[in-house]
C-alpha cells in the first residue's frame, strides 16, 4: 500500500481516513489518481482536468471514502458488491464495514498491479461481484460458504468477527486467517477463471498446479478425511493448497498479493529500498532477493512485540515457480479480455 499524505497539511494518512486527523480536512480516495484528495464540505473534488467527483454515498454505511462520478452515487468499488446485509441487520452491517474495507484494499492493489476488475453490471459474463452475506440474514442457518462461482464471490461476514475467525483458524490449524486473506484467495479463483482459459497458459498452469478437472468434491472430502499428504511442505504454500489444483492456484495467488502489497508498504515507508515489484523481470527474484529477507525481519519485529509472525510461511522452490506463473498473468491481465469493458 502507498504511503498517503494530506495535500493540505502533509500529515501521513491511512488508506481508510475520511478526515485528516491533523488539519480536519475531509478526504476522498481518487481511484484514477491513486491518491487521497481533499473534498469540500459538500463532499466534492474537482480534479486537474476540471472533472467533478463526489464522495461515495456509502461513507456512513460502510466507511467508503472512494470518489463517485455523480452526486449521491456510489463508487466503482461499491458497485462490485451485489448483496449486503439488510438495513435493519445491525450486527451484519458492522461486519460488512470491515469486509468492505478489506475489499477496497484488494481492489486498490489489483489496480496497482494492473488487474483492473469490472463489476457484473458492466460486464454480466466476465465481470466480478461480491455477495457479502451475514449469517444473521440466513434465517438462523449457519451455513454461508465462502467461495467463487462464475465471477461471484461469496464472503461469510461472520469472519469479520475476531473471536469467531480465531476459533475457525485454530480448528483448521491454519497459521493465518484474515478477512483480507479471504478476499485475496477468492479473487484468485476469479483470476484463474478469467485468465487461464486455453493454450499455453493453461498447459503451463496444469504442469505446475495439476489437472484442474479432478473431481473437486472428492478431493475436498479426501482432504478433510485424511489431511494433507506427507511432505506437503516441499511443494505447497499451505495445507489448504494441497486440496485441489484450483485451491493451490488461489492460495499461491493470495501469497502473490500478500507479498506485492507488503513489499510496497515497506518500501513506501523506507523499511526496504526497492523498485516497484512490477518492474522486475522475474518475480522469483523478488521473492528470493527482497521478500524472504524482509519477511524474516518483519517476523522478528512482530516477535519483539510478543505477536505471532507476520508471515508464518516457508516458500519451497516449487512454490517459487508457481508464484512466477501467477505473476506472469499480469500481461494478460492488463491487455487481455478484461480491458475495453
Ligand atoms: Zn491534513
Ligand atoms: Zn464506495
Ligand atoms: Zn478457494
Provide structural commentary.
The chain has two domains: 4-74, no CATH class; 81-335, no CATH class. The chain has helices at residues 59-62, 76-79, 90-113, 162-171, 179-195, 199-209, 216-226, 245-268, 283-304, 317-335, and strands at 4-5, 12-13, 27-30, 35-38, 44-46, 52-55, 67-68, 81-83, 129-133, 147-149, 152-156. Helix 3 (90-113) links the parallel strand 8 (81-83) and strand 9 (129-133). Helix 5 packs across helix 8 (245-268) and helix 6 packs antiparallel against helix 10. It is an alpha+beta fold and 341 residues long. The strands form four sheets. The protein has a four-stranded mixed sheet with strand order 8-9-11-10. A three-stranded antiparallel sheet has the order 5-6-7, with no helix packed on it. Mean pLDDT is 93; it is low at 334-341. It is 43% helix and 11% strand. The longest helix has 24 residues, at 90-113. Bound molecules: zinc ion (ZN) (3 copies). The site of one zinc ion has 8 residues, from helix 2.
Set down the secondary structure blueprint.
Elements: E1 4-5, E2 12-13, E3 27-30, E4 35-38, E5 44-46, E6 52-55, H1 59-62, E7 67-68, H2 76-79, E8 81-83, H3 90-113, E9 129-133, E10 147-149, E11 152-156, H4 162-171, H5 179-195, H6 199-209, H7 216-226, H8 245-268, H9 283-304, H10 317-335
Parallel strand pairs: 8-9, 9-11
Antiparallel strand pairs: 1-2, 3-4, 5-6, 6-7, 10-11
Helix pairs in contact: 3-5, 5-8, 6-10, 8-10
The structure holds zinc ion (3 copies).
